[in-house]
TrEMBL record:
It comes from the Bacteria. This is Uncharacterized protein.
Length: 165
């Protein structure tokens, strides 16, 4: 069994910018990923409208998520983190192809999609959110970053019991 996640463990890490969202006229949002707990994310978003801003007394809200699904409060997220991620059979199948050493994401995704006869981009994204895959950007042509992935150390290749996320 993995180490129990506590508030102290969450607070010992940091959140890093993992992307931005467009909420139209309401403004933008920021996606944050925890630096040491890959299953934990937060989204800072604008409130829905002036009534929500008045009611809550803030103009931005933080929404926590675990394994890509809403978790509610940080306390709820910590509870969810202490339950193993549930992988679907399709995710386990794709994870079985992901090597332990780094590979370029795009050629890998195309090769596996051809081999399996279906698109696998969503499964790769969900595996990343569930902490089974790691990714990083590496320098590429024209100074643009290229995504690389590998199987996370210790990632299970078994379908967990329970409801798939």
């Amino acid at each position: 069994m993995a180490e129990t996640i506590t508030l102290d463990i969450v607070m010992a890490g940091r959140l890093r910018d993992a992307g931005h969202l467009n909420y139209g006229k309401r403004g933008g949002g920021t996606i944050w990923r925890h630096t040491t707990i890959p299953r934990l994310q937060a989204i800072d978003r604008p409130t829905l409208d002036e009534a929500e801003t008045k009611r809550l007394g803030v103009s931005r809200l933080r929404e926590w998520s675990v394994d890509g699904g809403r978790a509610g409060s940080l306390e709820d997220a910590i509870t969810a983190l202490n339950v193993p991620a549930v992988l679907t059979p399709e995710q386990v199948e794709v994870l079985g192809f992901v090597p332990e050493d780094w590979v370029q994401l795009v050629p890998f995704r195309h090769e596996i999609s051809e081999r399996l006869g279906r698109k696998v981009g969503i499964e790769i994204m969900l595996l990343r959110q569930k902490g089974a895959i790691e990714n990083e950007l590496r320098p590429g042509p024209e100074r643009r970053g290229e995504p690389w992935i590998r199987r996370a150390p210790g990632a299970s290749l078994a379908v967990e019991q329970g409801e798939a996320a």
